[in-house]
Amino acid sequence: xxxxxxxxxxxxxxxxxxxxxxxxxxxxxxxxxxPARIPFPPLELLxxxxxxxxxxxxxxxxxxxLRVMMVLMVTLGISAPFMNASNLFSGVGPLYxxxxxxxxxxxxxxxxxxxxxxxxxxxxxxxxxxxxxxTAAPPGGGKQPPLNLLSAAAAKERIAGMVPRAWLGSRxxxxxxxxxxxxxxxxxxxxxxxxxxxxxxxxxxxxxVISIDFLSQRLGRLGPVKIxxxxxxxxxxxxxxxxxxxxxxxxxxxxxxxxxxxIKMTQPVKLAVRxxxxxxxxxxxxxxxxxxxxxxxxxxxxxxxxLLNRLTRLEISEANHVGAVxxxxxxxxxxxxxxxxxxxxxxEQPLLNPAHYLTQALAPFAEVQKGNLRDLLFRPMAVLIxxxxxxxxxxxQKVLQAWIENGGILVRFAGPEMARSAGLGDPFLxxxxxxxxxxxxxxxxxxxxxxxxxxxxxxxxxxxxxPEDVRIRRQVLAEPSLDLMQRTWAKLSDGxxxxxxxxxxxGWIVLIHTTADGNWTSLSFSGLxxxxxxxxxxxxxxxxxxxxxxxxxxxxxxxxxxAPGAPSSGVTALSFDTRDLQRVTPKNxxxxxxxxxxxxxxxxxxxxxxxxxIGDLSDDVELLVYARSRAVDLKPxxxxxxxxxxxxxxxxxxxxxxxxxxxxxxxxxxLVVGFSSxxxxxGAVAQSSQYVSxxxxxxxxxxxxxxxxNSLETRLAYVLTGEANVDEVSRLGLRGLTLVLRxxxxxxxxxPQAIDLNNDELAFFPLLYWPVVPSINxxxxxxxxxxxxxxxGGTILFDTRDQAGDVGLSFRRLARSLSLPSLVPIDGGHxxxxxxxxxxxxxxxxxxxxxxxxxxxERINDGVSPxxxxxxxxxxxxxxxxAQRPIFAVIPGGERQREMAYRFGINLVMYSLTGNYKADQxxxxxxxxxxxx
Length: 933
Prior knowledge:
Elements: E1 2-4, E2 7-9, H1 20-30, H2 45-49, H3 61-78, E3 81-83, E4 95-99, H4 109-125, E5 130-134, H5 152-160, H6 171-185, E6 191-195, E7 201-203, E8 208-210, H7 212-219, E9 225-229, E10 238-245, E11 248-254, E12 269-277, E13 282-290, E14 296-300, H8 305-308, E15 311-316, E16 325-327, E17 335-340, H9 354-362, E18 366-371, H10 373-377, E19 383-386, H11 394-405, E20 409-413, H12 416-421, E21 438-439, E22 474-475, H13 484-487, E23 488-491, E24 497-504, E25 507-512, H14 527-539, E26 551-552, E27 554-558, E28 564-565, E29 574-575, E30 591-594, E31 599-602, H15 604-607, E32 621-625, E33 632-633, H16 635-656, H17 664-688, H18 703-711, E34 717-719, H19 724-744, E35 753-755, E36 767-771, H20 780-791, E37 795-799, H21 809-818, E38 823-825, E39 852-854, E40 867-870, H22 874-878, H23 894-914, H24 924-932
Parallel strand pairs: 4-5, 4-6, 6-9, 9-32, 17-18, 17-19, 19-20, 20-25, 34-35, 34-36, 36-37, 37-40
Antiparallel strand pairs: 1-2, 2-3, 3-33, 7-8, 10-11, 11-14, 12-13, 12-15, 15-16, 21-22, 23-24, 24-25, 26-29, 27-28, 27-30, 30-31, 38-39, 39-40
Helix pairs in contact: 1-3, 3-16, 4-5, 6-7, 16-17
């Protein structure tokens, strides 16, 4: 590539054609234009004879200059010049690209891909091969693709197929892999560009920082190293595990602390954490403020128990990566637990009351309710706990038995009263008891207080560690039986049962053979007591076959953007047999593990090391921030100008030869129209160029002009996605639908309007067509603008265009950010099926998938669903060219399917314009029958 000041030329050898300009000049002067032909009609014989008798001997100077300029413009255009093309890297040899594609790269992945393409484009212009190595392992822990020297075209294909991973990468392994390949192939020196995530890597095994500066020094063998990183304000912010203190949940948000001395945080950073339920509905929006120099913020998650039990997901609304998502499973839900008789028993001496220890142990994870047995049975309870000495009224026993058989868990503690009666006549014991109690380590005992044995595999307490200081001094003994071992969930070191249980219908009866206070044991003073009660409460949530299902298969997995999806074949089951934090790996990505009834969440933020920004680098390593190239491609403009000069030359030549009889006014109009067309063509090409800076779009109206233009005429509108091809299909599709509406209905709509969600007002448009693309990322003000549009009567058609049979992960992520209502498949009685045509299906370019609408509810906005979603690519089916010929084929139904797509579009527009006025047609058969009767 040739660079002259701010002008760069991608094909410099094309400039050799400029040598021909003197020869062209000489040839044009040597051969004058063809003499003008004078018509010789009889009636104008005399008038024509009085004309100028000239014989041209040379070409006019202005025409000579025009033709030379035409050749010059075409030659310069073929050389592909760029204005302000920065030299992204220098030198010769291969371009070695290292890409951090772990979870932290997802936040602005589309920008990273665009900048990657900028570097590859320059490598292609410089005719340099490209080597790409990524740091994150593929799903399932498979092998990385082999390293090869790639052409620019092959490298761009590789970049287009790259996606960030939802786990940590391994920089050290990737660097060693690249160096080993370079040594094996004897690769020459070139340039190294590292697309980093802006964070230092911490080894989880050795708990030490693997400095990117150290790795860059090793890569220096391959050439000078540049590191691209996010500015500190764009570094990923993560959600750490919730903290449960005294039953109150606390959200913990962490951001990296800058290690580069020149970076000073002076302004507070405001963001929000959104609490969502399983349907994506917003439960709470929790504001978070990072003060300068603060890296961790804690905020109380204050939700009523009813809403807290619906909570399944926390996410940072301003982020778009899996580290900003925390999945909430049953372990964080506060199940209602009833303590029978605890309100009056020994209230004046709480430390002698078993209910005091039970309340303190249950408070962090359960909603404790106290009262008598009859009152508690008429409340929704997961577990009932009865301490020793609390009677079981005969009038309540039948209700208690039904409650247990319906899935409740009854937990009882032994004590002096149970020891005296031995449970005679008590139907709510899991085993038969001996009369009296066993004393271990008392004054009249030869032995010492007993300790607990490890928990059996079939016990819900499996995996809990047993403290050495827990001692059992007294217990009630169970009568030996054949199934006693199967009913034993915990036992002492001598083999005698401490916890026994029996299944009754869908529930359980559990007996702890010692007291809930400190009279017989020190168990109630230990953390093991809390964990055992937690396991019992968890057990009440429907765990099939008890706690032996500790190996849980993947149920719903998160990708690097935090969007849920089905697990791939490489994802394996995960063991939850301990309370230790599990770490995310390629074989176990973040998500839910289990089944539809019982799920356990694996979160990325739970196993991440402390976030540390990239530190100070060596002098020979250059650190840059991610930014798009500002280069302007001059090729379309120069070729367009050359074409314009050719048209002018043709017009002038024809005029001189007398072949064209136009007035100068018409000639001027023709030239203006031609120049405008070429200018628009050049602008369109320039917009589709990869060198257009982010944020540019097709509309550039002032707010007043935009409001005036769209207030005077009803228009359909479409959302600009930033992808030129998608936006052009949307424009052509809505233009085609508008024309069909004019022909078949009384609706007189104007030309479709492109909408920039960040800047344009939405209230002028009854219907918005939104093609969903993966790169969409809405900020909070824009999301609130869209939500207000939907609340105030607007309708949006979301089209994922993917022929995949579902609404797609991108739409799910978009639905969460917009807090869209619950959607259900449309039924045959919906007004949309009969608002103009009678329809049973709604095809577009594709067919066979469901159309989704809002669940029927209150009659708000005339009962019109504000959200309609599908994936049939309707705009492509509606689109046609200037000759009104269809642009895209429809599959598989052909033109009949296209006709049905137009009918769906007409029904959709009528539905959004007129509301539910045809709803009575749904009930017409019943009305006719009543009239007949």
